[in-house]
Amino acid sequence: MKRFYPDGVIPPLKVVLTEYMNAGEIKKLAAITGLRVPTRKAELVDLIVRYLDGDGLRTVWQALDGLQRAAVAEVVHGSSAYFAADRFRAKYGGDPAWGSLDEYRRNEHPTALRFFFYGYEEGGGIPPDLKERLKTFVPTPTKAKVKTIDALPPAYDRPYERWNNQQKIREKGTEAVPLTVRDSERSAQRELLSILRLVDAGKVTVSDKTRRASASTIDAITAVLEGGDCYPHVPPKDKWHDENAGPIRAFAWPLLIQAGGLAQLAGTRLQLTKTGRNALSELASETLRALWAKWVNATLLDELSRIDCVKGQTGKGKHGLTAPSSRRYAIAALAECPVGYWIATEEFFRFMELRKTTSR
């Protein structure tokens, strides 16, 4: 009996039952048909195949509950044959009932959802022959929506945990942090033109290896940002305990215009390309749109590298990180959010989870 599908491709139902499942697993599945269960594996396989033949497949699907039907629909009308548990949980707020096919877990029985998914104890995939038949009657799943807020509260209750040195105890609680609204849509367009003018004036110096801006350039860029940067540029007092976030926008602008082909390195300074010079007289909103399109797949920088406390970014640990492009694609969920509403951070994280691509 084989345990893993070659190249992750699920074979037809009869092959899955015959070559990738043992008799004990099939017997537990056959038991929920309500029919007489044979003992030989070949007869067990034939029983399942006959049970799902013709209108039997529709009958079994109709007996599923709402969450189980949604699990089938997501895979039937999705690009992958496999069930994506994280995305499903983010969209529907829970998991469908699977039960277990493990012959050693005698007190736990499989649910009818196991007639559709094969290969893993929790989840698995739908065989291609079943998937094609299911497409003829399983409706398309509802489109994911993000929940919005009409108005912001005056403050955010931020949880904290800190050590009280006087009482020698660890304190937990919340503290009200006033919210500040920053209208970045308009300011980003004006800032883009300011950065391009700084480059044109020869005031943007970057490293020829990392392409990151120098400390003096960071200060020069911060000076032209509307309202300053998100966090001040403060040199660390202790490299082992540096909790200062440091500049974000001033750090990003030189890298964005390089990745977008608006500026290129000339010695130690950036100079405008023909595209960058043209951008000075074009709509900044369109230039920003083009910058994002190029940045999504750019390899100039992994944004995590700006944060020193995130370990494992080099050496063998680097292989455990996701590709920057996949993270940027998830953030692009912003484009699908309704205009004129507020969205809670946790809700947006949930929405981003739905955009993750799955592969096996």
Please name the defining characteristics of this protein.
single chain; 360 residues; mainly alpha; 2 domains; two-stranded antiparallel sheet; 6 strands; 9% strand
Per DSSP, the total helix count is: 14
Radius of gyration: 28 Å
Structurally, the number of domains stands at 2
What is the overall shape? Answer: elongated
Strands ordered across the widest β-sheet: 1-2
The number of strands is 6
How do the helices and strands follow one another from N- to C-terminus?
HHHHHHEEHEEHHHEEHHHH
- Averaged pLDDT: 89
User: Ranges with pLDDT <50 over ≥5 residues?
Assistant: none
Largest sheet composition: 2 strands, antiparallel
Specify the structural class: mainly alpha
Description:
The structure is a single chain. The protein has 360 residues and is mostly helical. It has 2 domains: 6-134, no CATH class; 182-306, no CATH class. The protein is 37% helix and 9% strand. It is built from 14 helices and 6 strands. It has helices at residues 13-19, 23-31, 41-51, 56-62, 66-76, 85-92, 128-134, 184-200, 215-224, 249-259, 274-279, 284-295, 324-331, 345-353; strands spanning 118-119, 124-125, 155-164, 169-178, 263-266, 269-272. It has a two-stranded antiparallel sheet. A two-stranded antiparallel sheet has the order 3-4. A hairpin with a 4-residue loop joins strand 3 (155-164) and strand 4. Helix 1 packs antiparallel against helix 3 (41-51) and helix 2 runs parallel beside helix 3. The mean pLDDT is 89.
